[in-house]
């Protein structure tokens, strides 16, 4: 898809379908629970659906994209976006497939950014300084106080993963 210069902008678990409905039956989780039968797809082939928000890489990229739980930090901060926002969404999908739960279950921008920091480490200061005020009436404003709010919310103990923030969302590299 990216080879065609397309950015999906709404990748989420609901927009990824298995090609085949066939599956293999496996054994139960435990010998005591014989009623449970594990189903494993015969094929891992998938189809991506819902291209209603798809855009070309040269279009205006200053508006909000992606479903909240799969939204990249550069989108929340109003820094513009490109192909990496799809890659971020894929990462969130993979975590959800492995854990059974969405990684970032929130409906607030500041809380979302704080959750990202708990998982990935501190947000890059140079990105926070470039954060734009969100003009959309559907989302709360991110202003010059974002850093202070995130520092207040950062005091929750959690594990850190070896993941690096996207340094540049430009597709011209």
Automatic annotation (TrEMBL):
InterPro entries in UniProt: CLK_kinases, Kinase-like_dom_sf, Prot_kinase_dom, Ser/Thr_kinase_AS
Q: Residue ranges of the Protein kinase domain?
A: 1-173
Superkingdom of origin organism: Eukaryota
Q: Name one Pfam family in it.
A: Pkinase
**Molecular functions (GO terms):** ATP binding; protein serine/threonine kinase activity
SUPFAM superfamilies xref list: Protein kinase-like (PK-like)
The terms describing its cellular component in GO are: nucleus
Keywords for the protein's UniProt record, in alphabetical order: ATP-binding, Kinase, Nucleotide-binding, Serine/threonine-protein kinase, Transferase
PANTHER family in the record: SERINE/THREONINE-PROTEIN KINASE DOA-RELATED, SERINE_THREONINE-PROTEIN KINASE AFC2
Q: Under which name does UniProt file this protein?
A: Serine/threonine-protein kinase afc2
Q: What is the organism field in this record?
A: Phtheirospermum japonicum
